[in-house]
């Protein structure tokens, strides 16, 4: 995670990214990530979610929000963040007892 290694640079890139016409590229990457998440959700041993698109979007928002906030705080260790993000996502999925 580049946010952990160089948080000041990562923040500057986030700011500049918003100024560039990257909507199409960001949309393509986000769509590919959402598709991968929906695929994973479809493989889980529980009933399919009522709205897999919404669930995938929520998971992406959880991850992005937590990673961005950690970068803004200047966190430099990826492993603790990965654990927190995993617990948040598993909690969202109702799998809070699972280990991230």
From TrEMBL:
It comes from the Bacteria. Pfam families: TetR_C_15. Residues 4-93 form the Tetracyclin repressor SlmA-like C-terminal domain. This is Tetracyclin repressor SlmA-like C-terminal domain-containing protein. It comes from Methylobacterium dankookense.
């Amino acid at each position: 995670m580049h946010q952990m290694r160089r948080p000041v640079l990562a923040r500057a890139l986030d700011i500049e990214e918003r100024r560039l016409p990257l909507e199409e590229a960001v949309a393509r990457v986000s769509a590919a990530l959402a598709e991968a998440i929906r695929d994973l959700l479809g493989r889980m041993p529980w009933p399919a979610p009522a709205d897999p698109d919404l669930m995938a979007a929520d998971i992406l928002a959880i991850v992005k929000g937590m990673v961005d906030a950690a970068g803004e705080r200047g966190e430099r260790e990826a492993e603790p963040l990965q654990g927190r993000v995993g617990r948040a996502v598993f909690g969202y999925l109702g799998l809070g007892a699972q280990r991230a």
